[in-house]
Structure formats: structure tokens, C-alpha cells
């Protein structure tokens, strides 16, 4: 099953809660850059992870600690069944990139194992288990474009009339999400308890208006990511110079994404950037998630 990466079209971040997580007001969009997760029968439990050229295999955790192992244990415990099967993960989404690749794999594992073990887990339970695995995992189930609140785990699909195009510039060396949130706290000691909301982004999606969306894109974590990786500012500037309508850091970074006016414009921007960076990808959006959750 194909599971997509995400970008945050809007990421409002508030002051840390007592549990250490930050309240978010975000708009996720699933983009056409995928990992592939498949499950088959086996007497024991095996995970086989393979990576494409631009995915840093060395950044993945040791056997047994992959987020798909955690997803399998959580789903099995919820139903009181044994963890059994062979799970294969083909990774094309860069690791620790701000693209939620691990979250996509976790969502894919939940859905693939739910089918293999014939559990028919209700959607609400699946969403709750996903939220326990990580803040971005429920969105990976839902896909499309969605509003996220809480620590990001409460997701509701939103109307999106656009067919959008992104140029994606990932880097082999990732950024740690907790490090970026920590830097956010240092840079914004007076962050509001309730983060500001994404009205302009939601309106642009509803109208399918790419120029309005370009104006409204916003990421409260961008300053923290740029502080940790100043050279990302040059990538954003180069992408906008090459014809991208607007460049930004995706989520906690370090991937830079550029919103483009059309598929042709995206190909042109990617062609201009390609000689300067190891990897430059093109992704249409929005795309489907791992599982169409009826309620969302
Ligand atoms: C940056 C985003 O990708 C934006 O969507 C997410 O907020 C990150 O989501 P994620 O990788 O699924 O994060 P989790 O696995 O839930 O949490 C990892 C770590 O990120 C920090 N974290 C995450 C989410 C959140 N709302 N506040 C946080 O402070 C915490 O230090 C946490 O221990
Ligand atoms: N299947 C997996 N794919 C990628 N990373 C994984 C996986 N399982 C565990 N991890 C670990 O999770 C951490 C974050 O990986 P991930 O690729 O999800 O980050 P990300 O793209 O920045 O996600 P987010 O945008 O949700 O913060 C890495 O340290 C990585 O070792």
C-alpha cells in the first residue's frame, strides 16, 4: 500500500503544554511522494526495510525499533492477538526530513496489519492508536488536505478544490523534531497558549487559488529550522528565483518545498535547481492517505 508524505501548509505553534507537547493549529496536505508498506503471512515477526537512493538508510533505527514495529505491537495488544507476519517497507520518503515518512509507515502498517489479521478495527480506534504512535500519524491515515489541532493528532478533512504542484528539496542529513521544537521555545519564549489559526490557507484551498495559497503559507517552526540550518534560506531564495511562487521549510525541516503554479512550472523550477542539489523531486497534491476514514 502506498502511503504519502505531508507538508504543513500552515503550522501555528503555541507555548508548550504541561506534557511537553506544543499545541498546534495546522493544515496538512498529503503530497505524491510515497513509501510502500505491504504485509504478508509468516509464523514469526519480520520487518524488511529497503531504501531508495535519496533515503539515508543509516538514519533508520535498529531492527525492532522501527515505528512499524511499534505500530504492530500496539495494534496486536489492542486486540489481544500475536504479532505475526512479514512487513516490507520500501522507503522513498527521506528520513527526519519534516515530511512525516515514519508517520506514513506507521499508518501503512496499521492498515496493512489490520487487513492481514482480519481485525476490522473501527475507524475511531484506528485514529486513536495512530495518535498514540505519533502526532502526525492520524493525518497519514486520512490524507488529502486536513485541519489538525491538539498536538496535531486531531484531524478533519477540509475542502480542497486545487490540484497543486510542489518542488521538494530534501537533504541527506535530517533535523531532529524535538531539537527544532526546543529551538522554537528559545526563540519564542512568549508564544501564545492558543496558536493563531489558518483561515487564509483554508480559504485559498476552498477557492483553488494558487496565488492566494502562496501568500498564505506559514510555518511557525521555520525560524527555528533556519536557525539550526541557515543555508536553507538560500535554498528557499534560489527556488523562488527559479520561478517557485513561494518556498518554505516543510514542518520541522530540513526539506524545502516550493509551491508552483502548474506541473510545467514545477518541472521548470526543478530543472533549474537540479544541478545545485543532490535531490530535487516533484510532487502533485493533494493525494489519498493510507485509509479513507469515514468520519474525517
Ligand atoms: C513538526 C510536525 O511534523 C508538524 O506536523 C509534527 O509536529 C511532528 O510530529 P511527529 O514527528 O509525529 O512528533 P511526535 O512523534 O508526536 O513527537 C516527537 C517530539 O516532537 C515534539 N513535539 C511534537 C508534536 C507537538 N505538537 N509538539 C512537540 O513538542 C516533542 O518533543 C515530541 O517528543
Ligand atoms: N519507518 C521509519 N521511517 C523513518 N524514520 C523512522 C522510521 N521508524 C523510526 N524512525 C525514526 O523516526 C525519526 C523521525 O523520522 P521521520 O522520517 O518520520 O521524521 P520527519 O519526516 O521529520 O517526521 P515529522 O515531520 O513527523 O517530524 C528518525 O529518527 C528515525 O530514525
UniProtKB/TrEMBL annotation:
InterPro entries: GHMP_kinase_C_dom, GHMP_kinase_C_sf, GHMP_kinase_N_dom, IspE, Ribosomal_Su5_D2-typ_SF, Ribsml_uS5_D2-typ_fold_subgr. This is 4-diphosphocytidyl-2-C-methyl-D-erythritol kinase. Pfam families: GHMP_kinases_C (PF08544), GHMP_kinases_N (PF00288). ATP binds at residues 94-104. Residues 66-144 form the GHMP kinase N-terminal domain. Its EC number is 2.7.1.148. It catalyses: 4-CDP-2-C-methyl-D-erythritol + ATP = 4-CDP-2-C-methyl-D-erythritol 2-phosphate + ADP + H(+). Keywords: ATP-binding, Isoprene biosynthesis, Kinase, Nucleotide-binding, Transferase. GO terms for molecular function: kinase activity. Belongs to the GHMP kinase family. IspE subfamily. Pathway: Isoprenoid biosynthesis; isopentenyl diphosphate biosynthesis via DXP pathway; isopentenyl diphosphate from 1-deoxy-D-xylulose 5-phosphate: step 3/6. The active site is at 6, 136. Residues 203-271 form the GHMP kinase C-terminal domain. Catalyzes the phosphorylation of the position 2 hydroxy group of 4-diphosphocytidyl-2C-methyl-D-erythritol. The gene is ispE.
